[in-house]
């Protein structure tokens, strides 16, 4: 029995209509989703800009020619604990754009602006480009964990050991807090391993951390090689941020048990 052609045409026409309607619904949905996403982006960007505009440390960084507001985090930690002194050797891991190097240059007298004090040395290392900075030796495009970078640092130090090892590094955020935490803990462990190779007895390590479940594991590893380990949060770290700094003072000796 054959199907009348009029019925076939009617069926196909109705089917095509439903498809077009479905496509229109999907198209509208995607358009609205994109619009909401763009709106959310704009809202987030506006909030960030407004926060930057109101931030006193952003304003002060501009006045004092620091490359970013993070300089005040290091300065405030130093004001409280006195970790930076004239004549010291400082390495800043993940130094770009260079604001911690700027603060360290002033504190350790690496420009020899005060001839009555010993002259220090500041080395900044980063995979990213670091614009030249008076008083600091910058190693751009370098991974502080690589043997080649270690050789460069050793050549610069000329048998000297490091007094202060700094890290204000942070990984690219993924949107998953627990994963971000594990990533930055991994960076901290890399800095800790580097400290075993470069720090002098009594030296200090300071590294940025986002609070989370592995914080205690990092602190325990640091205690194997530092006499004093504590969490510090300077005023310039925003109250709503999970950012803190792990500080180890009184480096004891080389150990092989600073795991990851």
Automatic annotation (TrEMBL):
The keyword Transferase applies. GO terms for biological process: methylation. InterPro entries: RNA_methyltr_RlmE (IPR050082), RNA_MeTrfase_FtsJ_dom (IPR002877), rRNA-MeTfrase_E (IPR015507), SAM-dependent_MTases_sf (IPR029063). It holds the Pfam family FtsJ. SUPFAM superfamilies: S-adenosyl-L-methionine-dependent methyltransferases. Coiled coil: none annotated. Residues 66-251 form the Ribosomal RNA methyltransferase FtsJ domain. GO terms for molecular function: methyltransferase activity. Keywords: Methyltransferase, rRNA processing, S-adenosyl-L-methionine, Transferase. The keyword Heme does not apply. Belongs to the class I-like SAM-binding methyltransferase superfamily. RNA methyltransferase RlmE family. PANTHER family: RIBOSOMAL RNA METHYLTRANSFERASE (PTHR10920), RRNA METHYLTRANSFERASE 2, MITOCHONDRIAL (PTHR10920:SF18). This is rRNA methyltransferase 2, mitochondrial. The lineage of its organism: Eukaryota, Metazoa, Spiralia, Lophotrochozoa, Mollusca. The gene is LOC101849020.
